[in-house]
């Protein structure tokens, strides 16, 4: 499966299940400390990332 198709396959259920306005995947190293989705479904925000 192409990377864009994989991202879309994951993005759609996340938006639906978590009732998000949207979400995106960004390749590469992130700047700052954006929220992170953990494997257990928890969200870590701020410096804990």
What does this entry look like structurally?
- This protein has 49 residues and is an alpha+beta fold.
- The protein has a domain at 1-26.
- Helix content is 31%, strand content 8%.
- It contains one helix and two strands.
- Strand 1 (36-37) and strand 2 form a beta hairpin.
Strand order of the largest sheet: 1-2
Total number of helical segments?
A: 1
Overall shape:
globular
Number of strands: 2
Average pLDDT, rounded to a whole number, is 82
Report the uncertain regions: none
Helix content: 25-40%
Largest sheet features: 2 strands, antiparallel
Q: Which assembly state applies to the chains in this document? A: single chain
Order of helices and strands: HEE
Using only C-alpha atoms, the radius of gyration works out to 12 Å
Q: Report the β-strand fraction as a percent range.
A: 5-15%
**Structural class label:** alpha+beta
Distance between the termini: 29 Å
